[in-house]
Specification:
Helices cover 71% and strands 3% of the residues. It is built from 21 helices and two strands. It has a two-stranded antiparallel sheet.
Length: 486
Amino acid sequence: MNLGSILILLPWCAALWLATRKADGQRFAMAIALVELVLALILRLAPGVLHNTSHALFIPMLGALWTLHDGAFGSTLAVLTALLLPVSMAFAWRLSEFRALALSALVMEGALFGVFLAGNVLMFYIFYEILALAGAFLILRTGHKSRAAALQFLLYTVVGSLLFLVALVVVYLLHGAQTGVYNFSILTLSDTRIPASAGLWIFLGMVAGLAVKMPLFPLHSWAGPSYGAAAPAGSIFLSGAAVTAGAYGLIHFAIPMLPQAALHFAPAGIILGAIGTLYGAFLALNADNLRHFAAYASVSHMNLVALGLFALQAQALYGSVFLLIAHGIVSAGLFGVVAVMEARGLTGEWAGLGGLFRRAPRLGAWMLFFFLAGMGLPGLANFPGEFLSLAGAFQVLPWAAALATLGILAGVIYFLRIYERVMLGPLNSALAVALTDLRQSEWLLFWVLGLLTLWMGLDPQAILAHLGTLLSVHSSEVISGGSHGV
């Protein structure tokens, strides 16, 4: 069994073990999460550890279903996923629902590794569906345990992924008709000659299935209720790791497989990303509690990721991928703050907050830090990705990029406004007298996330210098912007 298979199967075996035990199993789950982080780092730092590609489960007409490929981009997102799992578990350590959260997050982690390492698109689809089911379970069994939110999440993701499957099957049948070879291998299907008349429809099916996970406007409606219903520690994984599956699918094979269709869709994709960036900002500004605020701030930033991605311009694409990674770290900090507050009995409703800095100055300082990162302050993680995404998009569709810029400016307003509402002003009489500041373990978690946020903001070249290698799967036509942009 190679390293890729271990990364996928180990968390699933751990989840199965947890499901058969009555104890919460915090130490066991955390140990597995840390082992997965070490293995993911080995996969990323030792290229070729999978010997490029490994095959198993060969099925006639489908190819080798269990095909693993250690691409640089997938292994980078695998490290992000493996980092966020122990962070999520640590913030949930004292929750009564820790076992349900850990079980579903472990299944999601294995599915995400399958998505990032899949060399067979049918295998990708299966892991993508498992990710949706585990995410719905997380929403259903943690936090508010909302059936409505879990069902909405499941309907959006499953219906979208079915459209994605239909698009894949059409490409599969076209390739079989042209060559006589029926195989779901990504490398095999990439050589399919797709008529221009059908290409755009196929690409739209792929976008519907993949962009819903990001979530791209107007497919974002599940995000607010889902992030708001799940335990904040679980939302760290949902908003920081699970959303990367959709972006990865678009970048890894949807756009390279259908570059001309992607170029035709690009203006619409940029416009939708710009609208989503601004609309998400207004939703965050009018959020009715702290959970929904963090949820809609995440939606706004992920739509900016989509804007840079669909610009199909090198500068914007690099910014989009950088922001995708940075968003995972900053989002973990934001939902971590919410998790810490709820662990102290605070519901996150505005009526019960105000003047909290007087009781918890260390929490207030870290909240300000991650709010500044969310605003895109220079020197912190979001800024390089936001700047490059917008700079590249301005060269392709200036007015849409300007609209997205308004969303970023609105972000400054809503972050400052919410900080003032929660931390500043007179002390709210509803706050408990015995309210405590950060524990040592929580303080350490914020330091880990904070140092990563600073590192990405102060030394972005450490990641940007490698993006050409990470995104080498793209055709030169798409990377250069095709017939639009520079």
